[in-house]
Amino acid sequence: MSVGRAARLLAAAAVTLSAAGAIAAPGLAATGKRAVLEIKTVPRVSGMTFELDGRRFASRGDGIARIEWDGRTALRDRLVAVPTETRPGIRAFLGRWYGNLDRPGQSTLTAALGLSYAVKLSFTNLREEQVASKRVSSVTLRSSTGIVYRFKGDEVRKRQWIQGVRTVSTPAGPREKDILISVDRVIVDGANVVNRAQQRFLPRRQDTVEVALLFYSARFSARDALFRLPLGSGVKLLHPDGRWTYHAFGSSAEVVVDGLARGDYSVEVDGPGISFLRPVTLSRDQEVELEVLSYADIGLAVGILVATALGLLYIGRPHLFARLKPRSIPGLAGSLGGIRSRDPSQTLAVRERGANEGAVVSANGNGHSPSQTRAADGTAKAGSNTKVPQGRRSLKQILDDLEHVMRRVSHHPGVTDEEIVEAILAIVREHPGCSARLLERHRAARGSNSRKREQRAQLLEDGRLVNVSLDRTMRLYVADDPELGHVRVASGEGVTNGVDAGDAIPETPVPSLGSSSSRAALAGRGAADVR
């Protein structure tokens, strides 16, 4: 082969190789043997860091990053975007690539970036007063892209990275767009103190966000349930998180509690009486009046219930209460009341002074024969010359009467039937026309009432006593009483002692003990009996 021919072959080979290189890397800006890769950032960011085959390079002020490379292979696994804090409080990260990373020799790419901002949260109440962030348990934020941020504990008090810018596709190419952040929840004392999505902000424009919390005040007061008087020493408050706090009352049993988170509470009064746990829902400033069922209220209510029950029982069954009526005890009413006693036992005994003197009139004006006086003196034990006190009685006399009453209550087992008969006859002689009740209540008649009734019935049957009453009551006379000639005997025989059963019955009233004329008349009758 000649030398000229060989030279022509080498030239043809060089041209072929050059054409092959041009076909393998179309569009590359050749600088010798190496190509240049250009990366455009959207939004335009200075200082965004990229890494190619372990070599790092960053974007400049125009937002474009450049690096030399061989340009013969794909960039899929060789090119990386490194998250970078391009400025204090701003962090850039890759959202997506625009361009074909799998095509060998790709010389131009677009990096769609996202920007996050360090945001600090602060809290105020509705009066724009600062609220300590340590009271906030957690915060929940939600972005317009659907991203949810939750911060708890110490995270609430520190700056947190929140995305504020993203890149979207448009017909004109990729464009940057702001992200809106809304406050979803703020938990204080176990309750949410914000309205969902009511407060919003743009992180790109606000690096410190002030969140208004729904705090309210409550005025608690305690009153007696019935008498409406101030009562109690304080209130115990159950918070939504289950925590109890105590707040002491000031004057008039009132206290104002500020800074309460919106939510459901329970409160009760600390004081004498019964206080029920009352639920309270705070959604505004409120005044809460609490009622306490004091011991005075309880006593009054119990008294009313008992009185009502007894009244209903009495209306429906009055016969049950008739059995509860206490039996009268002779001498007791006159002794304790301190008034002039009408008990016939206060009659003074008549003592026989002599045949010519007749009978001595007793202090209440009743005269009797010596035999009647001795009978009454033996049973009633009355003093011979004692005068019945007019008006109030002395303490010694009242005590003596009480002692006698206590003896009357007992059965007196030592009293014989003969003594009871004598006492009955003496009482009837002293009080002609008396009732059967007087016999049972008289001090001179000892023994039980049942024995007195038996002996009275026997005396009526034997004719020694006469009943002149036509109704259910009794008017008793001794059979030898001269007044029987003027009254009708209550018997079925028709005519007794010359008085016809159909004739009118003249009423013979028992003489009053306080009348001087009655005392004189009885004294004269007693003197006649003695004679």
Task: Give a structural overview.
There is one protein chain. Helices cover 24% and strands 30% of the residues. The protein has 531 residues and is of the alpha+beta class. The chain folds into 4 domains: 29-113; 114-212; 218-293, Immunoglobulins (Immunoglobulin-like), CATH 2.60.40; 332-530, no CATH class. Strands 1, 4, 6, 7, 8, 11, 12 and 16 form an 8-stranded mixed sheet that branches. Strands 9, 10, 13, 14 and 15 form a 5-stranded antiparallel sheet that branches. It is rod-shaped.
* Radius of gyration (Å): 61 Å
Distance between the termini: 209 Å
Number of strands: 25
Helix content: 10-25%
Average pLDDT number: 76
Count of the separate structural domains: 4
Structural class comes to alpha+beta
Binned strand content: 25-35%
Chart the SSEs and their pairings.
Layout: H1 3-24, E1 35-42, E2 49-52, E3 55-58, E4 64-69, E5 79-82, E6 84-87, E7 90-98, E8 108-124, E9 136-143, E10 148-152, E11 160-170, E12 173-178, E13 181-188, E14 191-192, E15 200-201, E16 208-212, E17 215-224, E18 234-238, E19 244-248, E20 254-261, E21 263-270, E22 278-282, E23 286-292, H2 295-316, H3 318-322, H4 332-337, H5 370-380, H6 395-409, H7 417-430, H8 436-441, H9 449-462, E24 465-467, E25 476-478, H10 516-530
Parallel strand pairs: 1-8, 8-16, 17-23
Antiparallel strand pairs: 1-4, 2-3, 2-5, 6-7, 7-8, 8-11, 9-10, 9-13, 11-12, 13-14, 13-15, 17-20, 18-19, 18-21, 21-22, 24-25
Helix pairs in contact: 5-7, 7-9
